[in-house]
Write a structure and sequence with these properties.
112 residues, alpha/beta, 3 helices, globular
């Protein structure tokens, strides 16, 4: 169950949108593929894990892949800059991957 973080920047379509519109666009686009997952923040907090913004399961030819996304308003707020937050998010991704028996990937999306 390998975890490979990545950073993605949304398209230019989002430049003139409000923060909520941008988040809705990212959510709709992300959840248009695979099976969307709703993960209780309480479940994660009780285990000392980080809350996640978006999650989905995607069927690959041989298995399932779990994609977890953290949406940030700025690349400057990237969890890569905050080691503890990154670790909590990474542990959340790993925890969910174990539950679903899936490979996992943690993504960070900057809205600007």
């Amino acid at each position: 169950m390998g975890q490979h973080p990545s950073i993605v920047k949304p398209s230019k379509v989002l430049k003139n949108s409000s923060g909520i519109e941008k988040e809705m666009f990212v959510s709709n686009t992300f959840h248009s593929v695979g099976i969307p997952l709703l993960v209780s923040p309480n479940l994660l907090r009780q285990r000392g894990l980080g809350q996640i913004d978006l999650a989905r399961l995607v069927k690959t030819p041989t298995s399932w892949k779990l994609d977890v996304v953290e949406v940030k308003s700025s690349i400057l707020k990237s969890p890569f800059k905050n080691k503890k937050q990154y670790q909590r998010l990474n542990h959340s991704t790993h925890f969910l991957a174990l539950i679903f028996g899936a490979e996992s990937k943690l993504h960070f999306i900057s809205l600007n």
